[in-house]
Amino acid sequence: MSDATHMELPLYSIAHARTGDKGNRVNIGVFAYQPEFYPLLLEQVTEARVLSMFQHRGASRVVRYELPQLQALNLVIDDVLEGGVNGSLNLDGHGKTLAFLLLALPLQIPQALLRE
Amino acid sequence: MHETSHDTAFCIGCGAGFSGDRLDVAEPVVDTLIERGLPAAIMFETLAERTLALAQLARQNNPDHGYEPKLRELLEPILGKCVRHGIPVIGNFGAANPMAAARMIAALGRELALPPFQIAVLEGDDIRDRLTPEQWDIAESDTSLQVDPAQVIAANVYLGAADIATALRHGALIVVTGRVADPALALGPLLWHFDWSLDDWQRLAAGTLAGHLLECGSQVSGGYFADPGFKEVPNMANIGFPIAQVSHDGDILIGKASNTGGLVSEQTVKEQLLYEIHDPAAYLTPDVILDISNVTVTAAGPDQVRVSGARGKPRPARLKATLSFSSGWLGEGEISYAGPNALARAQLAAQILRERIAQRQLQVRYRIDLIGVASVHDSDDGALLASLPPELDHNDVRVRLAAVAEDKAQAETAAREVLALYCDGPAGGGGVRWHLTQRIGTQSYLLPREQIETRLHYLNSHANQPEVL
Fold first, then answer.
1. Considering only CB atoms, which chain A residues are within 8 Å of B140?
2. What is the per-residue pLDDT for B298?
3. What is the ipTM of this complex?
4. Long-range CB pairs of B140-146, under 8 A, 24+ apart, other chains included
5. Which residues contact B430 (CB under 8 A, 6 or more apart)?
6. What is the pLDDT of residues B396-411, one digit of tens each?
7. Of A28, A70, A91, which to mutate for an interface test with B (greatest number of B Cβ within 10 Å)?
């Protein structure tokens, strides 16, 4: 949904991300390309939205940590590996590709920020 | 003889970030360490969670195996330079058989006609002789899993940096370990060089942070980062491996080997800073609880980034141990369909596989994937696809079946159903591959420190028998 003041764009357009895995959890570090985009991450990359994005894979919980000095979020997602790291039949059993699924999350970006 | 110093910065290079990493990356790191002229060490991290179980299986087949299979190839290009320049090498490449690794390194030293050097072997991580998982708290992984001690292949506790520092103090040039916490491979030489106290939590935190940034090799210097059009990395075919320059106060400067590709930037360092981190205020290691919630990352020149602000809390009372156990068999099979209507033929193949698995009542859990961009009809430039009219709907779909079973034969039977699609499946199926893999599960626990006893052995490269100090 875009309107005169906002444009809908994927998270990918304003942030980069990396997945790490340990046990049956993954963490996704999300980093704003520019400091002025960080408030949008805080406002729109919420635990609830991330959980709903990964629910189809069995995700049970998302905890979000804020790292303002890095303009970063650390999202820790439980049970996202479709049967666990021990049970997954997915080609990517560790979930290393998942950061790029998160980056598809749609955000409402103020037009004013995009013009800068 | 190495002098501990409170003034000089110390450099730690990384020569491998996993078993399977490039074998030609360590030499430019060592050359750069020599060129910088500061006291230095190089670490190798080659032991992922399941790698140790695979090593244990290799050792069961041959008592001289069970260490990093490419160890010789990793060390041959650098061993002479490290011996001549007094650059210690610390690696968890001992895997399931550190003593055999040490013997191989000694033999390599003699073969290369190097002057004698000391090799230390750290043991005590293997806890297969005291498996009481029912008494331990589960640390992470699938909490529903019941581990049968009889099925355990490997059981290892994550050791810390103190023994590595002790080995270096006793004059070891090479320190061979099995399971240690990855950052300890860097913290060990820092403890030795700066003579930091084992309860100096701030400095231990800084050293652990340096190790955390180095432990995955190029992942801090441009690997696992590039995204064309968004995040560019130059010359990835010759990516340079990282070097951390650490001051006595724990200030960290991340750089990389000279004359290499790759990139060290605020972005690459930030991504790796959070890699595999859960609570940024409490990253648990055997040596210290690291708090990175106030760490700052600042560009400090071309391919140079300063990292500061690590804080430490007293080390945890318990140590993490990971048990690996046999966890059934994975059968996989793939077949390709291409050209007009390929997607429909691939979907028909998938449907046939579902029916066959049901009819034969195979006791497997399975999934089916439809994969493909450009393979059997085209090369990776996509020239053919570009030349065809879009209405032809010329697709390239690879059907993958993955089936797991407790029983090897069931997994194999499922995978062979893909093979049978050659003759019995849809039109034009080709390029079948299928194979079976033994699956290894893992479960992590927390153990009281008192249950763990470490030992250091020393082997002179020119002597036949190891010595215990």
1. 22-25
2. 98
3. 0.96
4. B140/A22, B140/A23, B140/A24, B140/A25, B140/B444, B141/A23, B141/A24, B141/A84, B141/A85, B141/A86, B141/B442, B141/B443, B141/B444, B142/A23, B142/A24, B142/A84, B142/A85, B142/A86, B142/A87, B142/B441, B142/B443, B145/A86, B145/B441, B145/B443
5. B335, B336, B337, B338, B376, B422
6. 999 999 999 999 999 9
7. A70
Question: Contact A23/B140, CB-based, under 8 Å?
Answer: yes
Distance CA B124, CA B319 (A): 13
Nearest to A65 among B141, B225, B280 (CB): B280
Place of tokens 């030992």: B455
3-state secondary structure B314-383: CCCCEEEEEEEEEEEEEEEEEEEEEEECHHHHHHHHHHHHHHHHHHCCCCCEEEEEEECCCCCCCCCCCH
What separation, in Å, do the N-terminal and C-terminal C-alpha atoms of chain A show? 21
CA distance B71 to A101: 36
Closest alpha carbon within chain A to B324: A86
Residue range A59-72: average pLDDT? 97
